[in-house]
Amino acid sequence: MQTKPKGAVAMKSNILVVSSPSPITGGDGLRALRSIREYSKHFQTHLFIPWELWGSKSTLKESIVYIESLRSTGVKIVGFSQLPTAVHRLREVLGTRTHEVLLSLAIPNIAHLSIGTANYNTTVVLHEYWAAVYSGYTLANLFNTPSIVLLQSPPFYGSRERFANIVKALTLWRKLTSNTPIEKLLLEIETITRSSVEEYMRKLRYKKILKKYTAVLGISKAIAVEMGGEWMDRVYCFNPGVSLDEEDIKIAKSIRKRVKEKQSYIVLGGRPSADKGLADALISFRAISKHLPELKLVVTGRVAPATLLRVESVCRKLGIEGKVIFTGFVPREKRFEIVAKAKLVLYPSHIDSFSYAVLESLHLGTPVVGYRIPALEIHYGKCSAVHLVEEGDIEALTIKAIEILKEGVESTEPPKIKSWGEIMNEEIEIITKVATR
Fold first, then answer.
1. What pTM does this model have?
2. Of 43-52, 383-392, 396-405, which gets the smallest average pLDDT?
3. Which residue, 9, 96, 122, 284, is the most exposed by fewest CB within 10 angstroms?
4. How far apart (Å, rounded) are the C-alpha atoms in residues 348 and 345?
5. For 161-201, how does the pLDDT look when each residue is reduced to its tens digit (9 = 90+)?
6. What does the alpha-carbon distance between residue 248 and residue 243 come to, in Å, rounded to a whole number?
7. Residue 20's domain spans which residues?
8. Residues 139, 251: one domain?
9. Measured distance CA(138)–CA(125) in Å, rounded
């Protein structure tokens, strides 16, 4: 029997990671960035960037600093995928990626993949969006490796009611942005039709391709619940797979200690988009401001210029112009400070799997009002400072928000969950097992 020479160092597995590791893209990009940093300590890590990131020049430009930070840890950038140039240009002109999503779902092989050859042991995908899932599947086949996909949000919805509520949120936003009854009707028809076609295509493509993966993981039980049916057993869910890391906790404690008094504003918890409840929040805030006229609404997160113009127009229609402040993308520590000083976080999101925003708010001493969707019900349903109302009930959302703003809460204790280190240990153990089969 051969033995390893004394002092010999075990060879690290080569993993090919498919990801857009940038917090500019949202919480999923932040988690991916942190995961890859941890991977680099245990594996020879190679990064493939799917077309989701390359499609937006401004997003890519702002994300380069994060990609470069990974290179400094030994991560090698080995490839990328992209759609035809005309498709990306159309996205820039229209300010929407709807056509891009539908086209890539309808004709998956329209994407061009470029990558350097290497002896990879496994392929790991860190997102649920189609560009990443399809790229990962294709690369695993190309290099004949086992494959893992980590879903950070539900790729489709098993519940018709949940999907209908999301479509209602999208149509509500389109109604607010329209100027005439006929425009409102046409936009509503277009939104319902497009959303239904996209969801049909998603189910068709994802159900087939996910079954090809060696392992399908979810960062939250809510993902399997939302997908429903057989996926309740097929998806291995962390419980949860998201937490604040040690640096976040340190910053949150420092800021909370510094902030002595709440200021006269509330914060929109999620990114400013229709599926995250932007329309719900603006309508609710209009009612809230009638009772508390000195209050302002702060919206953080990157907003495309064309979208910002539409949002500002909606604010004028609702009579809340001047009361809604858009900060754009702000560094994480600055956002923590904004949330810590807020009296309330309004979180009427229709889609989620865990929510960094809610967890951060609780660590920063700020209560939350949101909708009772699976992600929030599962992970925050027992938190005294998180108040949930039925999804889409803007009146109930408003009443509860006013109640908390006037009466306050006794405690904002966050739920007791695994540390980031514990989560990563479990994740790395799964990758190691798959890579060494």
1. 0.91
2. 43-52
3. 9
4. 10
5. 999 999 999 999 999 999 899 999 999 999 999 999 999 99
6. 9
7. 14-156+204-241+419-435
8. no
9. 11
